[in-house]
Specification:
CATH topology of the largest domain: Rossmann fold
Distance between the termini: 20 Å
Number of strands: 10
Radius of gyration: 17 Å
Shape: globular
Number of domains: 2
Order of helices and strands: EHEHEHEHEHHEHHEHEHHEHE
Length: about 260
């Protein structure tokens, strides 16, 4: 199976992209809803949680791991590679590569959690081979709980989003990375607030395309992956609200299963 983990339910944006682009593969999802969000945690805690999340997926049969969480991708990816032998993918690098390919004025914006922004990983990757690219970042910690609460069209959400995006808009960026799995749920609102001329990069889509490319280049591994729609959705804390949101976000009925971490 292809295993996907996130700090909460936001990683379902990655699941949705898999079901659009690589719909033939069986998916195993784990959302650490009892300990969400990761973005306000320290590095050691994020690494610990990410290792536990990956272990859960591998024990359940995952042969490939996708780190959907931007915070865990930024902080724990290299650490996870030292702990596990299965192929591991993260969402940061594919998003950075896409943004570099898309920008025209060399001004790229990033919104994400505090952990993602403070890690400096996006700035490092975006400017690695492109020293003329300028990166402008802003943490947006309130967006995750707003999305988790389903406040996707509330006036309060629009006001907060406008405040977060204004510093980037004044820098006249032409490309914006939505560096958190929750943010694509606000994509339409983000586009309105940042301006129609700014191109949005969704890390969820980019990591799925990266997995697709990997499987095409590694047919031996590809053949071992089960192909069916018996997807499993695991969470560390289960509420009726979370159950309803998961089905709403994916556009079809899903059953969340609570497990002990």
């Amino acid at each position: 199976m292809i295993g996907i983990f996130d700090s909460g339910l936001g990683g379902l944006t990655v699941v949705k992209k898999f079901q659009e682009i690589l719909s033939q593969y069986q998916l195993l999802y784990f959302g650490d809803t009892a300990r969400t969000p990761y973005g306000n945690r320290g590095e050691d805690v994020i690494k610990k949680y990410a290792e536990e999340d990956a272990q859960i997926l591998i024990k359940r049969g995952a042969q490939i791991i996708v780190v959907a969480c931007n915070s865990a991708s930024a902080i724990a990816y290299e650490y996870l590679r030292t702990k596990f032998s299965v192929p591991i993918f993260e969402v940061v690098t594919p998003a950075a590569e896409k943004a570099v390919a898309m920008t025209r004025n060399k001004k790229i914006g990033v919104i994400g959690t505090r952990a993602t922004v403070n890690s400096g990983i996006y700035e490092k990757l975006l400017t690695k081979d492109n020293r003329n690219i300028r990166v402008f970042q802003n943490s947006a910690p309130l967006l995750v709980p707003l999305v988790e609460e389903g406040w996707l069209n509330k006036p309060e959400t629009k006001m907060i989003l406008k405040k977060y995006l204004l510093p980037l808009k004044t820098r006249q960026i032409d490309t914006l990375i939505m560096a958190c799995t929750h943010y694509p749920f606000l994509r339409q609102m983000i586009q309105v607030k940042i301006g129609q001329r700014v191109k949005l990069v969704d890390p969820a889509e980019e990591v799925v395309l990266k997995v697709k490319q990997y499987l095409e280049q590694n047919p031996t591994i590809d053949k071992k992956l089960p192909r069916n729609d018996h997807h499993q959705f695991l969470v560390s804390d289960l509420t009726s609200r979370g159950q309803n949101l998961a089905s709403q976000w994916l556009g079809h009925q899903v059953k969340l299963e609570k497990i002990n971490v």
